[in-house]
Amino acid sequence: MNPRKRADEGKLAPILLREISGLADPPLRFMEVCGTHTMSIFCSGIRSLLPEGIELISGPGCPVCVTPAGEIDRAIALSQLDGVTLVTFGDLMWVPGSSTSFHQEKAMGGDIRVVLSPLDAVEIAQEEHGRKVIFFAVGFETTSPAIAVAVKEARRRGLVNFYLLSSQRLIPPAMRALLSTGRVRIDGFILPGHVSVIIGRGPYLFIAREFGLPGVITGFEALDILEGIYMLLRQRREGRAEIEIQYRRAVKEEGNQRALEVMGEVFEPVDARWRGLGLIPESGLILREEFAGMDASRAFVIPCEDKADPPGCLCGEILQGLKSPPDCPLFGKRCTPEDPVGPCMVSSEGSCAAYYKYGGGQ
Amino acid sequence: MCLGIPGKIVSISEDHLAEVDFGGVRREVSLLLCPEVEVGGYVLVHVGFAIQRLEKGEALETLKLFKEIEESYLESTQEGG
Amino acid sequence: MKGERILLAHGAGGKLSHDLLRELFLPFFNNDILRVLDDSAIIPTEPSKLAFTTDSYVVKPLSFPGGDIGRLAICGTVNDLAMAGARPLGLSASFILEEGFSIEDLEKVLSSMREAAEEAGVMVVAGDTKVVEHGAAEGLYITTTGIGVVPEGVDIRGSKARSGDWIIINGPIGDHEIAVLIARGDFSLQGETKSDCAPLNGLVEAMLKACPDIHCMRDPTRGGLATVLWEIANASGVGVVIEEEKVLIREEVRVVCDLLGFDPYYLANEGKLIAFVPEEETEGLLRMMKAHRLGKGAVVIGRVTAENPGKVLLRTRIGGHRLLDPLSDEQFPRIC
Q: CB neighbours of C3 closer than 8 A, spacing ≥ 6?
């Protein structure tokens, strides 16, 4: 954002907030699905400015938070094998498995590296040709096309030491699962801007058609989010339930077809387990058969058994918007960002960490 | 859930790589997911990939909306007072 | 000694150690006190309060735009003294060298130490070197220790912030950490950001002239602005409110933060200070600061409140509030 636009923020936000107050018919609960929205909402202090009775609740859109502890355990177990270099995104470094984290393993001498781009993982595999390089990839639709390109690039270069451990997930199936439980009371969705850059508007239409709820695909600046809320309120006022796009500068109706093609070439949907939401049909991505040789979950025997999520931890209910972080008995006591129990406290976009850091930890 | 930031394309090389300027900081970015771009154009970048072209005209849309709200508000207060 | 390399023997305490000290180190820090080369430096002093501090420097890479490990080692310790309002009397510098390290590179580091020491008007009056085996260290580590005299009437402590105090910073935040990050090349970023690394004792001296009653002062190094504000809020049992609009962050710094998912309020600075001062003294102090080379960007960023003791609130540009906690862990670049 350029400085001029930042200056506009202070001027324009009050106007928009006034409009929001004028339209609001509280009590209302809107869910921001995406963790980056959660972060932005906390960092800009939007919650403290909304009229009373408009509640923003955080959904299952933080890849770290929805990854079950068992999957982290498996990746850590792989990193402990002889001759293995484990490559991952920085988001995962502090996430606790059931007994240890990547950060601790690295301190003990594990070869664990953080990359910014999936292509960096391919470069590492090329440089470290004597080692087996496993890229532990989490992410949603925004990141999956880039991971797919990296897989194709590893094949193009003929690398035989590059493996992918996929822990990728898809957003629309999770939203369907969430709505289908019938337990969550939501009056509208602030839909993820960057996932939508890839998938477009179509995959969300069921929310309006089948569940009668409005949704607005929203950008990440404070003004974007305020406008997203304003658009949701306007739909409610006018008795509409549609999927609208606020984030027009980046989101096209049809998404990014090129990215979707590459993603479909390399991956296929698979049933996947989500922390808190359980097994959701076709909500994960695995490598297609022709790339099976690169699939770390097939190439390695993983010496690890599934363990339950930590006792007492409410991350699951928090991810569904059923509980808020302060409701958890561990929050701020046994579970803090320095010593997290559940993933919602680890990921800086996790609702617990965001509440603790920006919203007033106890 | 996904950080993405806008940058301006400074140059494009043959292998679908572009040098992208983010307000004074530059990084090489892959154009494989977003090939139809030109030098001088803006793209949204995520994990080292351009994932969408940014429309300049539409980028101003939000600001336009606010101005409309502001004008209608000023009119209404003038009428009222 | 050009072209030669550090050997384990350079740290063994024998002839080579002496040669290294006399031929390489001494010319850079030559002064009456160090030249004696006794076990301890004797510094003449009058009855007064002494400030005493030490810090180790392990930055990677050793050199970055705006400074290097040598400049950092001088400025960091001088600044720690200055934050107590102390005038530095002398520093010691202790070097851990890796076997195989190039003498030429060491000379560069020493040269920038000399330059920074001259800038600060301080002498390195004692020192030590050790050499460790190749691979046991990354080139060079430096530990500097400093002592200084606190002038009569000056009493600056983290516990002295009072409700109503104004909070001043002398410029934009985050430059040092981002300059080092870019220089390290980890994420293939290119940029022009320079470290703000500078000795602040001269600025502090000028500040104390305008306002001897500065309540608290800290340099927001590791942990960043958020962490030092939190430390002071807690030590003093007061609340702190900062205006996001007033805290300057250069565009490049902001962009790198956006790219990597970092929070600028937690980035390290090496040439910044925050001061808590009585409201009525603020205007005069700002005028004095702006007249100093390192205080040109001085600005009031917030105030101390009786409410919310122990908490730091950031009032955002859109008028909301965000809580700033101390840094809880190392910042890793994020995709989300």
A: C103, C104
Mean per-residue pLDDT, C46-58: 86
> Which of C253, C259, C334 should we substitute to test contact with B (largest number of B Cβ atoms within 10 Å)?
C259
Query: In chain A, where does DSSP find H-type helix?
Result: 3-23, 35-44, 63-66, 69-79, 102-107, 118-127, 144-156, 171-180, 193-199, 205-211, 222-237, 257-266, 296-299, 315-319, 343-346, 351-358
- CB distance from B3 to chain A under 8 Å? yes
**Rounded to an integer, what distance in angstroms lies between the CA atom of residue A238 and that of residue A231?**
10
Which residue has tokens 């949701």? A232
Q: What is the DSSP letter of A177?
A: H
When the pLDDT of each residue in chain B is averaged and rounded to a whole number, the result is: 81
Over residues A97-117, the mean pLDDT reads: 86
Which helix (H) or strand (E) segment holds residue C178: the answer is: helix C175-184
- Give the B:C interface size as CB pairs under 8 Å: 46
- pLDDT for residue B58 is more than 80: no
Q: Which residues pair with A268 in a beta bridge?
A: A286
Which tokens sit at C17?
């150690």
| Structure tokens that stand for A113 in this block | 């590296």
Comparing CA positions, the residue from C92, C195, C185 lying closest to residue C146 is C92
**Angstrom distances, CA of residue C238 to CA of A116, C231, C281:** 40, 10, 20
Q: In this structure, which amino acid lies at residue B78?
A: Q
Beta strands B17-22 and B25-30 are: antiparallel
Does residue A344 contact residue A325 with C-beta atoms inside 8 Å?
yes
Q: Hey, are the CB atoms on B1 and A194 less than 8 Å from each other?
A: yes
Contact C93, C154 (CB under 8 A): no
Tell me if A193 sits within 8 A of A217, measured CB to CB.
Answer: yes
pLDDT at A274 over 80: yes
Q: Are A113 and A87 in contact (CB under 8 A)?
A: yes
Three-state DSSP at A331 gives strand
Minimal Cα–Cα distance from A294 to chain B, Å?
A: 21
- CB contact A109 to C (< 8 Å): no
* Non-local CB neighbours of C46 within 8 Å, separated by 6+ positions: C149
Contact yes or no for C317/A10 (Cβ under 8 A): yes
pLDDT of residue A295: 97
A-chain residues within 8 Å CB-CB of B70? Answer: 12, 15
End-to-end, the C-alpha distance of chain B in Å comes to 46
Whole-number percent of chain A with pLDDT over 90: 63
Distance CA C20, CA C34 (A): 15
Q: CA C224, CA C222: separation in Å to the nearest integer?
A: 5
Q: If you measure CA to CA, which chain B residue comes closest to A88? A: B47
Q: Is the pLDDT of residue A334 over 90?
A: no
What are the pLDDT digits (tens) for C197-232? 999 999 999 999 999 999 999 999 988 999 999 999
Pairwise CA distance, residues A101 & A302, whole Å: 17
**Is there a contact between C175 and C253 (Cβ–Cβ < 8 Å)?**
yes
CA A276 to chain centre: 14
Length of chain A in residues, anyone?
A: 362
